[in-house]
Amino acid sequence: MGATRNYQIQPEVEIRQGERVTFKGQLELIRTDKGILARANLKSSIPETCSRCLASFSYPLSVEFQEEFYPTIEVNLGLKLPPPEDSSAFTIDENHILDFGEAVRQYSEMALSLKPLCQSECAGLCPQCGKNLNEGPCKCDTSTIDPRWLALRDLQITN
Questions:
Q1: H or E segment and range at residue 22
Q2: CA 27 to CA 21: how far, in whole Å?
Q3: 158 inside domain
Q4: Which residues 6+ apart lie within 8 Å of 53 measured at CB?
Q5: 28-76, pLDDT tens digit by residue?
Q6: How many angstroms separate the CA atoms of 27 and 66, rounded?
Q7: Which of 18, 35, 70, 134 has the fewest CB atoms within 10 Å, i.e. the most exposed one?
Q8: Which are the contacts of 28, defined by CB distance < 8 A and separation ≥ 6?
Q9: First vs last Cα of the chain: how many Å apart?
Q10: Which residues are CB-neighbours of 21 under 8 A, at least 6 positions away?
Q11: Residue 110 is part of which domain span?
Q12: pLDDT of residue 44
């Protein structure tokens, strides 16, 4: 118990269906009284589509986690061990292989933005012609106001 091993790793993990991504980083494994504690700090980038302008860009992805992996087979005698109390806990398979790909996938899902942006100040698309406004203004007439907003134009702000 307490023995520690550190590794530089480059795992390839399926993030989305059919989309594999290579991560780079450090993995620390610590022996505990119940299993192996894995601490990972991984970085990668994935192809993504901007939610405002629909441009493709490389999204930087940073994944950090600390999870305990529980054995399913007793190492010395080869006897089957009872499953961990938490049914969602990560396990070490019957061949004593710790596969942390699923942990990386789950933590990657949590690290992804729900509305990824190619840049924080992305201007998006023109609602009339669809031009990417990051590339410059379009020639659309913007003086026309949606009739639903006309009542707001008449409001006067007074202090």
A1: strand 19-22
A2: 17
A3: no
A4: 118, 122, 123, 124, 125, 132, 133, 134
A5: 999 998 889 999 999 999 999 999 999 999 999 999 999 999 988 887 7
A6: 10
A7: 18
A8: 4, 5, 6, 7, 38, 39, 40
A9: 69
A10: 12, 13, 14, 15, 44, 46, 61, 108
A11: 4-153
A12: 95
Asked if 44 and 137 touch (Cβ cutoff 8 Å), the reply is no
**Number of structural domains the chain divides into:** 1
Amino acid at 31: R
Most confidently modeled of 9-18, 103-112, 137-146, 148-157?
Answer: 103-112
Amino acid at 23: F
What is the b/e burial string over 68-105, where b = at least 16 CB atoms within 10 angstroms of the residue's CB? ebbbbbeeeeeeeeeebeeeeebbbeeeeebebeebbe
Q: Would you state the structure tokens that stand for residue 43, as one six-digit string?
A: 């970085």
Quick one: average pLDDT of 97-110? Answer: 90
Q: What is the rounded distance in angstroms from the CA atom of residue 124 to the CA atom of residue 54?
A: 8
How far apart, in whole angstroms, are the C-alpha atoms of residue 29 and residue 122? 41
Comparing 157 with 117, the larger pLDDT belongs to 117
Task: Provide φ and ψ at 103, rounded to 5°.
Answer: -65, -45
| φ, ψ of residue 127 in degrees (nearest 5) | -70, -15
